[in-house]
Amino acid sequence: MINYPDVLAEVTAAVDTYEDALMANDVESLDSFFWNSPYTVRFGVAENLYGFRDIAAFRLGRRGGSPPRKRLRTEIVAFGKDVAIANVEFVRTDTGRNGRQS
Questions:
Q1: Residue 77 in 3-state DSSP?
Q2: What pTM was computed for the model?
Q3: Which of 21, 55, 89, 99 would disulfide-bridge 26, Cβ 3.0–4.6 Å?
């Protein structure tokens, strides 16, 4: 089944919590969203990070956290009760540049 309401609510809450942690530069919370595995991948605007350790090191070394932004659109689709994909489109409020995350 696609988009069980309870799964959508859970993933939406997780996306909102991640956004709050990102804007607060809450590194501990941000790290908790990533699978602690060498298989985890995070692509950013200027970085390609492979493995949880690289991602955590990036967060610790980032001065001031993420640039301020406003979410424009959030799309979530859940496949059954165990898999969901979230995509966010945002605009950086300091530069007006658009960005995406999944």
A1: strand
A2: 0.89
A3: 21
The verdict on 30 and 60 lying in the same domain is yes
CA–CA dist 31, 66 (Å, integer): 14
Residues 6+ apart with CB under 8 A from 59: 27, 30, 31
- Separation of alpha carbons 100 and 102, rounded Å: 7
| Residue ranges making up the domain that contains 5 | 1-25+66-102
For residues 96 and 4, give the distance between their C-alpha atoms in angstroms, rounded to a whole number. 35
Enter the tokens of residue 93.
């409020």
- 32 with 11, same domain: the answer is no
3-state secondary structure of 51: coil
Report how many domains make up the chain. Answer: 2
Count of residues for the chain? 102
